[in-house]
Amino acid sequence: MFGQQRGDEGKGRVVDMLAEECDIVARFNGGSNAGHTVVLPDGRELALHIIPSGIAHDNAVNVIGNGTIVDPIRFAEEVADIERLGIAVTPQKLMVSSSAHLVLPHYKQLEEIRELGRGAQGSTKAGIADTYAAKAQRAGVRVERLLGSHDSLLQVVRDGLESVQMARKEHGLPSVDIENEVKLYAAALQKLQPFVADTSVYVNQQLQDGATVLAEGAQAFLLDIDHGMYPFVTSSSTTAGGVAAGLGIAPTTLERSIGIVKAVQSHVGGGPFVTEIHDEKLLDVLHGDMSTIDAEKGTTTGRVRRLGYLDITGIRRANMVNGTTELAITKLDWVPRYGKSIKVCTSYTYRGETLTMAPDSAWALEKCEPVYEELSAWDEDITEVRSFSDLPQAAQDYITTLETWTGLPVTYIGVGPRRDQVIIR
Ligand code: GDP
Q1: Which residues form the catalytic set?
Q2: 370 with 296, same domain?
Q3: For ligand 1, what atom is nearest to the CA of residue 415?
Q4: Which of 132, 135, 184, 280 has its CA 20 to 30 A from that of 246?
């Protein structure tokens, strides 16, 4: 299951729904920079960052795979948040790969320093880039270190913090109480330790026994380190190829590839956005009431999202790379906010040529102009509709037209943020 756009497609709620039928829900990439909002049946909200969305279900075992990076402090906080909602988090329900990499506190500080200067990337300051950089430089620290003496690991944490203290001072940032940071990290390691396992062996054994595994993609296609709009990307593989590498399973085990598409296309952070809307009045309507769960603001960052028209050219590229077999469309209930007629981008003009598939370069995307087609909106409230044939004709036509333009069936349609507000086809 992958985000086919720029993040915040509503992956959390789709995974949450699919988790009911799955034995394992697994994260294969990224860290606590992801943000999923799940609404529980009783209406309470659960914000998840590194822990897979299956945690809200009794049946699913949740796996944080080797392709991810884990910040023990954020992990411990998230476990505590989930437990406060009365959901038990036990090693039988959650496993963390011993081969995943640890986010060290000074990686977050390095990012904080970088965001002050010319190299700022609008990052979540969760230490993602520096942790993956250390992994690629073969200088990272893996979760397996927890299985040995914590003292030597904590010395690495202390050394790291000392190495950036001077740079913080030079950038006018307050100095850090290093011993206190080390103490917090030590306590978080104790919380993380019981969950550590060889998850690759576990997942493969379960697959052999016929288990259904749901791989939950974090971030999205355009943020993929290889296929996204580099350098406005994340530091990991968000696409189908990342599943095999990030969970330690064979590519041949992948059966379905579900692409999540939000009808109101949004983006948080920098980078080209060909169909971006700049009309303040329209943006006001599309952002929604900021106090509601489905307002267009980031789960992790709280930042108001950039918004645009639905872009089929980007989805076509995501379909190609992910081998997408079906689409889940979220926020159909918000589509009439665009107005009586809805613009959808079906191709780009690039240097005088027509492109029906987006280029994979930020540089080229900056030069693309959107070509729109218009579809009719509807007036009816669809949030209580549960079957496709009960949708207004214009809403049915909107979905079937997207199917024609993408060449894929739409199997799930979100008509509201709650777990039950979905049409399954
Ligand atoms: P994720 O990171 O892909 O899981 O997405 P987020 O949870 O960050 O953002 C998706 C947003 O869309 C959240 O605010 C959800 O509550 C909201 N959402 C998802 N599906 C629907 C839907 O079908 N209708 C409405 N109105 N909101 C939705």
Answers
A1: 8, 36
A2: yes
A3: 23
A4: 184
